[in-house]
Amino acid sequence: MKYEAAKLKDISKALGLSISTISRALNDSYEISEKTKKKVREYAREINYRPNPVAVSLRDKRSRSIGVIIAEIANSFFSQMINGVDSVAHNRGYNVIITQTHESYHRELSNLNFLASSSVDGCLISVSTETENFDHIIHLHEKGLPFVCFDRIVEGIKTHKVSFDNFRGAYEATNELLKNRYKRIAMLGNASHLSITQERLEGYKNALEDAGILFDQSMVRYCLHGGMIYDEVKKAVDELMHLRKKPDALFTASDKLTTNIIRYCNNRKIRIPEKLGLIGFSNLDIADLLTPSISVIRQPAFEMGRSAAELLIKLIESKHPPVDFENKVFPPEMLIRQSSGL
Amino acid sequence: MKYEAAKLKDISKALGLSISTISRALNDSYEISEKTKKKVREYAREINYRPNPVAVSLRDKRSRSIGVIIAEIANSFFSQMINGVDSVAHNRGYNVIITQTHESYHRELSNLNFLASSSVDGCLISVSTETENFDHIIHLHEKGLPFVCFDRIVEGIKTHKVSFDNFRGAYEATNELLKNRYKRIAMLGNASHLSITQERLEGYKNALEDAGILFDQSMVRYCLHGGMIYDEVKKAVDELMHLRKKPDALFTASDKLTTNIIRYCNNRKIRIPEKLGLIGFSNLDIADLLTPSISVIRQPAFEMGRSAAELLIKLIESKHPPVDFENKVFPPEMLIRQSSGL
DNA sequence: ATAATTTACGTAAACGTTTTCGTAAATTGT
DNA sequence: ACAATTTACGAAAACGTTTACGTAAATTAT
Known about the structure:
The structure is a homodimer.
Chain A: H1 8-15, H2 19-26, H3 34-46, H4 53-60, E1 65-70, H5 76-91, E2 95-100, H6 105-117, E3 122-125, H7 135-142, E4 147-150, E5 161-164, H8 166-179, E6 185-189, H9 195-210, E7 220-222, H10 230-241, E8 249-252, H11 255-268, E9 277-281, E10 295-298, H12 301-317, E11 327-330, E12 333-335
Parallel strand pairs in A: 1-2, 1-3, 3-4, 4-5, 5-11, 6-7, 6-8, 8-9, 9-10
Antiparallel strand pairs in A: 10-12
Helix pairs in contact in A: 1-2, 2-3, 5-12, 8-9, 10-11
Chain B binds a DNA duplex through residues 7-9, 17-21, 23-24, 27, 29-33, 36, 51-52, 54-61.
C-alpha cells in the first residue's frame, strides 16, 4: 500500500464539480461563488488536501527549494549558519537541500550538478578548500541559476555575497596577542588560495606592520584541508616549532585548526598561554570551557545564514535581474579569554 | 533570464527524432538501434542533458527524496548522524531534506506535514522531547508513508528501528563511577517520557542495584529541553546540590546536559572529579580536550545514520510490506577519561 | 513468393496542477 | 422585451517524463 495523498480529482468527483473549479475555489478565484468556495474548502479540509508540490513545481517551473553547498555539517560555523538559512527558508515556504563537499572539489562539482538538475530555484555556496577554478559555478550562474556566495567568496561572479570581515578579525586577533607582549606570532591558515585565507593573512600582516614588526613568511603555514586532518596540522606546527626562532604565539585562521592546535599542545604538553599564546577563529560554544579558556574570533554564523537565504530568495523572486549586488560584510565578535595572554 | 535546463524536446528537434525515441535511447531500450542510441547519447552529453527530476517524480509518483526530522542540527550526535544518512542516500541517488524540531512538538507536527506533502518517499524521525503523543506519525504511517525511527523510539508503530543500547551505556557509566568509589551518584536526564530517558534510567538503576545501593528517586532530575536551556539545567543541579545528602558524582544522560553541567561546575567552582565525579553521554569530539578530560558514553552516530538510511531505502524500494521489522541496537563506546575518577 | 515475424520508430496518454479560453445562464440596462 | 454584460463554471492545454500501443519497413520462414 503506497502512500496516496488526496488530489483535486477526489474533491471534484465528490462534489460533482470540475477539477478547474476546485482549483480555483481553493485559490480563492473571483470567478467562483462564495457558496461553492465554502463547500470546496470544507471538503478539502476534511480530507486534508494539500496541493502536490511536485505537480505544482512542474507547472510553475519552480520547485520552491534551495540548495546549500558547504564543506561540513559537523562544523559549528556551518551548522549554525544552516540554522539561519533554515529559519528564513521555512518561513518563506522553501525547502532546503544541504550537500557537503568535505572540502573536495570533485564532490563540489557533483553536488552542484545534482542540485542544478534537481531544479532547485537557487543555490547558496561556500566553495571547498580544494576549489581553485570557479567555472562550474560561473557557467551555471550565466545560464540563469541564482547564486549567493557566502563565507568563502567566489571571484568573478556577479551576484550577492555574504561575507565576514576577515581582515578585521585577523587584525584584532593578532593585535590582541601583540598587546599581551607576544613577539613572534605565527599564523596557521586554511588553504592559501581561499579568499578568507588571503584576507585573514592581510589582517595578520597589517597588525604586525602597525606594531613595527617585520612580516616573516616562514611564520605562516597553510593546511589544505582546513584543519580537518590532524596530521596535516601536526606537520605544520611541528615545522613552526622547529624554526630557529620559534613562535611564542599562534593565530589560527579556522575552526578546526583551532581545536586541533589545542589537541597538539595537549599532546606535546605545551602550556597555553605561557609557552604559546593562542587565539583563533572558532564558533564552538564550549571554547570558554576549555582550560585555559580559548580566545576566539566568532563569526555571526546564524545571522550570516539568515542574510544569505534572504538575499537568495529575493533574487529568486525578483522578475528582473538586479542592477547592483549587495555585499554584506559581518563584523567579528571578539571573545577574549585566557589563551591569548593573562 | 531564467535557468532553463536541456530537455528531451531539444534533442528530439535537433536530431529529427520523436521524444519517445530519445527517451528510450537514453534509457537503453531494446527497441532502439545501436546507431540511434549512440547518436542520441552523444548529443545528450554534448548539451549536458539530465532528466528533469520533477517531471520524473510526477510520472513515477516518487521523488527520490527522504525527509529527516531531528531536534537540532547543531548537536554533534545529530550532525554526525546526518553525515551517515547523507552518505548512503547520495550513493543511492536520494535527496535528503533535513528539518529541525528544536524540541518542539508543534514544529515536529508542521515539519512532518510539510515533508508528507512534499512527496518525500519516506521519513527518518527522532521525535522531539515535547512529543508524548505519536498519532501524527502513526496516522501517516498507516496511510503508507514509510518510516524508520531512530534514537528516540516511537511506541506503537510497526516499522524498522535504529536505536542505541541506552541501558548498557547507562549501566556501564554508572558502574564506572561506582568502581571509582563514588557513593552518591545522581542522574540528570532528558525529558522523562522519552524512550531513551527511561532506558537510561533503568541502566542507572540496575547498576546501583547490582552494587547493593538503594535507588533514591530524589537523586534523579529531568530536563524537559534535554539540556538546551542552561537555566533549566542549573535549576536541576542546584536542587541536587542542596539536598541534605548531596551527590558526589553525576551521570548526565544527554549531550547538551553534559556540556552544560561542565559549564555549571566552572561557574560554581566545583572541582571535577574531586568534588563531583562526572560521566555523560556526548558525541563532542573535543571532550578529551577539556580539563579534566570528560569520560563519555559515545554513540556511533554516523553508523546509526547509515543504518537508518539503508533500512528506509530498503523499505521504500520493496514491493511488498516486509513481514518482520528490524530493530538495530548499537552498542555504546565507553571513553573513560579523567572526569569519572582518577 | 508470400506470410509471419521482428525491428525501429512514432503517437498519445498519464502523472496533478494552474490557467487560458469558451460559454451557458443569470443579471442588468434601456 | 431584448441586448449587453456579468457570473459561474467546464474543457483543454501545458509543464517534461515514461510507456503502452500502433505500425510501416525490414527481415525471416515456409
